[in-house]
Write a structure and sequence with these properties.
- There is one protein chain.
- The protein has helices at about 140-155, 165-200; strands at about 20-25, 30, 35-40, 50-55, 65-70, 90-95, 100-110, 115-125, 130-135, 155.
- It has about 200 residues and is of the alpha+beta class.
- The chain folds into 2 domains: about 5-155, Mog1/PsbP, alpha/beta/alpha sandwich (Protein Transport Mog1p, Chain A), CATH 3.40.1000.10; about 160-200.
- It has a 7-stranded antiparallel sheet with strand order 3-4-5-9-8-7-6, covered by helices on one side. A 3-stranded antiparallel sheet has the order 1-2-10.
Length: about 200
């Protein structure tokens, strides 16, 4: 898993004009940024960050919560992330997106002598996965979790993952095909026996 140096995005910035919905035609997603968040162009200075927002009026005196999207240049496997996949200072967490449980991480770090949280959720979009991250003062972590969860709830896009229903349907087709082949083989065997019997 690639995790951007999210702490670097938590530097103070002047808010820009807000947006009601974000659409990215190249990566095929759209979602609604949280209320009270405005564009944060400085966040896009980090590698592969393509969109970024920050609170217009921070709740904490230690600074705002920042929300960003980073491209991952590939597709995500269906297997859940393992603890050994992430830095020792990070903890694996799970988020909900559509009907899927998606992997993410939680970590605490120090910035300018103050504790900050970083939450990352990896979204299995196709043709290319992205990760959303929220970060800010440690005392705002609970709000950060709510913000990330509510943003994921609005995120729409195609995925290469199959839902449980789609997996069952596909398995059913495979089983049905196998049964059909088996029945056909049995029928051919019976026909051949009858043909030999009538020729005798």
């Amino acid at each position: 898993m690639r995790v951007i140096p999210a702490v670097a995005c938590l530097l103070a910035a002047a808010p820009a004009v807000g947006q009601s919905q974000v659409t990215n035609a190249e990566l095929g997603y759209r979602f609604t940024p949280p209320d009270g968040f405005t564009n944060f162009p400085e966040g896009r200075s980090q590698k592969d960050v393509i969109d970024c927002w920050t609170e217009a009026a921070p709740t904490s005196s230690d600074g705002p919560i920042v929300l960003c999207v980073q491209r991952l240049h590939g597709k995500l496997p269906r297997e859940a992330m393992r603890q050994e996949d992430v830095p020792a200072t990070a903890q694996i967490v799970t988020f909900k997106w559509k009907t899927f449980d998606i992997s993410g991480i939680r970590t605490l770090a120090s910035q300018a002598g103050k504790q900050v949280f970083v939450l990352v959720a990896q979204v299995p979009l196709t043709p290319e996965a992205v990760q959303l991250f929220a970060g800010g003062p440690a005392d705002q972590e609970a709000r950060g979790q709510e913000i990330l969860a509510s943003t994921l709830a609005t995120l729409e896009g195609e995925t290469n993952w199959l839902t449980a229903a789609e997996r069952s349907e596909r398995l059913g087709r495979v089983v049905g095909l196998a049964i059909g082949i088996a029945l056909a083989a049995i029928a051919v065997g019976i026909w051949r026996k009858r043909r030999r019997a009538s020729a005798a």
